Amino acid sequence: MTNQDVQAVTANGTQIAYEFYGEPQAPVILLIHGLGMPMTGWPMGIVDKLVGEGFRVLRIDNRDQGKSEKFDQLPMPNMLWQFLKLKIGLSVSAPYELTELMKDTLGVLDALKIDSVHVVGVSMGGMISQLLAINAPSRVKTLTSIMSTTGNRKIPGPDKSVSAHLIKKPIIKTKQDVIDYHIKTWQLIGSPAYQPKPEQLKMYVAELMDRGMSAPGTARQMLAILAAPNRVKDLSRLRMPCQIIHGIDDLLVRVEGGIDTAKAIPQAEQHLIKGMGHDLPVELHGQICGLIAKQARSQEEKSNATL
Questions:
Q1: Which are the contacts of 4, defined by CB distance < 8 A and separation ≥ 6?
Q2: Which CATH superfamily is domain 4-305 in?
Q3: Which of 76, 153, 228, 235 is the most buried (most CB within 10 A)?
Q4: Could you tell me the pTM of the whole model?
Q5: 270 vs 284: CA distance, rounded Å
């Protein structure tokens, strides 16, 4: 791991925390994580591998998580009613839109005076990355959307076992109850072929909690996802190099979501990984980072050749 700098900037009127790794002159890879996840959801194994490939890595805490600004002052609609509206095809109400998280991200690039980046998003982060590519294509050199989807409501939803766990309100009396709930979540949605050891999973959850996980913030982010319109038509306009990475055994965002994303984007590369669920197991870090670095390096070489 090379030089690290942890700071925050005002982006889209919001305080967004970020971290840099790697040499200042290297091309930047921006990592955006998903629902309820601080930047530490990105394992340092991935950060280090990308730095080792010759890139500078930028991680951010999305609004409402980690060290970034929280929006607890916003009124919250009834969650059950919003889920019912979604089920019967009505519009969902949300405290803020998913595009606001995209604007936060764009604001970080502006504040840091970064012209363009290679964008990598996981889950909700993939949705934010797609919106960034759609709305600010000149700022996105390449797009890698991992275990994400298009907002197409015809795509199958989470497995029933996952939905039941996520919808059921957990009994939380102690910090250990919170830890146990998150461990159970990762056991349900994680990669069946690459199950971490119990102590590894506990350490990962502890790192997430130490960085900061907001349950109300997660609810607001969830509503932003549910309220977001279908992106299929907009994705068809993308012209930068794009690739889709998705686990075949993902029980949270089903593989059909990744396939739909690849289908929507012209000439997008599709990489479906057997045994992978809705996480980033250490056994797949080499493969995933290799795909990210290959696409980014190819585009850098093309850009340099035209100078």
A1: 19, 20, 21
A2: Alpha/Beta hydrolase fold, catalytic domain (3.40.50.1820)
A3: 235
A4: 0.95
A5: 16
